[in-house]
Amino acid sequence: MHVTKEKLWSKNFILITFSSLLVFLNLHMMLPSFPSYVKTTFQANDFTVSLVVSSFALSAILTRFFAASLLQKGKRDLILYLGLLIMILTTIGYFFSSTIEVFLLVRILYGTGFGMISTVLPTMVTYVIPPKRLGEGIGFYGLSTSLALSFGPLIGLFLLGDYGFGNLIFFSTLILLFIFPMLTVKKHIPMEAPLPKEHKEKKSFIPAATMMPVTLNFLLSLTYGGILSFLALFGIENHIPNVGYFFLANAAATIMIRPIAGRLYDRKGHSAVIIPGSLIVFFGLVLLTFSTNTLMLIFSALLYGLGYGMIQPTLQSWLIRSVPQNQRGTANSLFFNSLDLGIALGAMVLGIVAMNTSYASMYLVCASFMIVFLIINLVPLLNKEKKEDSLKANV
Question: Where residue 64 sits, what CATH number does that domain have?
Answer without folding.
Answer: 1.20.1250.20
